[in-house]
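Re: the 240-residue chain
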Amino acid sequence: MNSGDLIAAAATPRIPVRDRAGNALGSFPVRRIYCVGRNFADHAREMGAAAPASKAERGNPVFFMKPADAIVIDGDVPYPPGTRDLHHEVELVVALGRDAPAGELAVEAASELVFGYTVGLDLTRRDLQAAAKAKGLPWDTGKGFDHSAPVGALLPASDIGGIDHLQLSLDVNGQRRQQSTLDALIWDVPDILHELSKLYALRAGDLIFMGTPAGVAALQPGDECVARLGDAIELRCRIR
């Protein structure tokens, strides 16, 4: 506790960083968590939303946020209070290692900000989200709750290369629930960083959950989840 502080400051949430061989490289301090909604056409359709037929028809991306301390790195995820319909959404997670320059970020320069990638789950209290949507209210309680952002270890971007060909997948209790290659993203990583820069000052330590493919469904206590990004990154967690 610093002199003059009346309470002890909470520790900064951190994600372990590893290389392809699994060697520990340090940790990544998390500043903010931005999330992208409806970024796979098949998921947009399964949620009852229109999916663009081309990039020219995309409109604007949908953004929301989670608190930084919602991350879970040990795989131990308690079933949250206030819901009877907890859903999984497997996602590519992008970690920024540099601050964006002031002003609107050029799409061509966006990749220079990326430190690394991992896979994560955007856990959702679907019943709370649906009730809020039906009333035209914000749905923060459906998305931004404790332990709602389990993530795997970060892999530096230099260790993974191009990502468009990588497959994103989620198995629950040994059964495949979600999968897609990342070239199916409606807005890719440079697009999203460009769009976020119009609204926020992007900084080193920021995470971006890039959206989920179709196949979202309910989780129950005791379920075992295995999320993967290609053959390089894996997240294992259990709902308790």
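The mean pLDDT is 93.
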